[in-house]
Amino acid sequence: MTAGLFIAIQENMIEKKPVVFKSPDLSKMREVIIDHRTKIYIALDADASEAKSRYLANLKNRKP
Predict the structure, then answer these.
(1) Domains of the chain: which residue ranges?
(2) Residues 29, 40: contact at Cβ < 8 Å?
(3) 45: which residues sit within 8 A by CB, 6+ positions away?
(4) Residue 44: its pLDDT value, please?
(5) What are phi and psi of 18, to 5 degrees?
(6) Are the C-beta atoms of 33 and 39 separated by less than 8 Å?
(7) CA distance from start to end of the chain
(8) Closest by alpha carbon to 51, among 37, 64, 36, 38?
(9) Are 30 and 42 in contact (CB under 8 A)?
């Protein structure tokens, strides 16, 4: 006679909470065009030229 495998199921199973991603509201941000295929969004009171130069500087420092 073979022994069966019995698994005890607990009554109080722990349910995982769904992951909620909160996207920023783009209507409250300003679009800065980097090149023909890249756009970044910054705060309305931020400087567009500084944001563009910071983005390009970070792009150069990335590892391939």
Answers:
(1) 26-61
(2) no
(3) none
(4) 95
(5) -70, 145
(6) yes
(7) 61
(8) 38
(9) yes
pLDDT in tens, 2-48: 555 555 555 566 788 888 989 999 999 999 999 999 999 999 999 99
Structure tokens given for 5: 């495998």
pTM of the predicted structure, to 2 decimals:
0.62
| Cα–Cα dist 27/56, whole Å | 24
* 18's tokens: 């769904």
Q: Can you give the pLDDT at residue 31?
A: 96
Distance CA 63, CA 57 (A): 13
55 vs 20: CA distance, rounded Å: 27
